[in-house]
Amino acid sequence: MHMLPPGPEHLGWIDTLRCTFGSPAPVIRRLAAQHGDPFRVRTFNGPITFIGNPEGIRAIYTADPETFEPFAVEVTEPIFGRTSVVVSTGPRHRRDRKLLAPPFAPAAAKAYAAVVAEVAREAASRWMPCQPFSMLETTQSIALDVVIRVVFGVKGEARIRDVRAAVLDLIHALHPLVLVMPAIRRPFGGFGPWARMLRATAALDALLTGEVRALRASGEERADVLGLMLKARCEDGEPLGDQEILDQLRALLFAGHETTAVTLAWAFYWLHREPDTLARLLAEIDALGPEAPPEKLLGLPYLEAVCLETLRIVPPVVSVGRVPRKTFAFLDYTIPPGEPLVATPLLVHAREDLYPEPDRFRPTRFLERDFSPFEFIPFGGGSRRCLGATLAMVEMKITLAVLLREYQLRLTSTAPVEHVSRGITMGPRGRVPMILEGRRIERRAENASSQQGLASPAFPR
Question: How many helices (H) and strands (E) are present in the chain, helices listed first?
């Protein structure tokens, strides 16, 4: 048995800069082509083994969860803290997942469809006909308001506005240097990025604490995620404490906001670059009729295929890793304790044996066959698969279906857009500019009226 996977001795500075500020995909795929899959490389943060081999991914995702620690906890601490479900381990992690699972179960997530549709329409109402707008900014707005209403459960325009402003302050306060340079996480007399982030975190926590305590005092039972979290009980019968809930809410905010927003922006981009794909999707949506309730849209198979293909070709999260607590053997290799293993969709989603013509946007591949949880991994897998995966799919399906059904859009340019690093996620370079050409419902009505008039002898000539 080989001790370690093959690979280059070091990741050079040029490749490091490309991965950090550009796209890691070409670098990762080139190294896999040169050295095999999996491969091991020494990075600025130490050696890492990257895997796109489904059997290697299976070995990692099906191993005893106690085998691993989460990867890069110290890097993501400003985002996920040290107690949220994203980074907790052992019995605490199992408890947290059990407590948080009900709000994200399929039945619960489907109940949020009407809220998502309302939020999407509100965002689109700000578009101006024939004027360019940023689709990425629109989807970021939609994803943020879904978190505020569906996860946080905030009600009332004034209160939603206050929480939205506090969340945006926190998102903007998260400077990349805070992630890559823990040494600057110092107050510095109230100046600098760390101090700004602490202030923004405290402001958001104060608002959310008010929501938590008001809901506790009211005794109201709500179906949003916060309401269901307040009902949850630990094995000893005790509820979650306020600080525990705040940690989980902030983690859910960061885990679910940007990832869903960039995926939605990509979906609009790809659909409007591929007119035949867009036409097929519109035909499927239109067949339900203009008044179809949001939950009916969730069952459309081609709509789901479009969402899955978007997640395949441009995954938003590409480097979720696991760190073995002890020597870990998989395939023909043995990984020493403390060395991260990263199962990345940048490799497995680009395998030609699984996805012929992997660089082509072709949703029908998801109607032609099923992919195993070791071949398709946009939400990770195993004991750490993303809790919000079902909610994310509901949000993507409803937003796409509602806006495509009601609005006619086009890209300002069909030129290729690069898939680049955006902090802890990946997304499109630029803002995905689009133009609103009109409302489809009105245009269909006009066309139908025109056709009826042409066929009628009583129509004025």
Answer: 20, 12
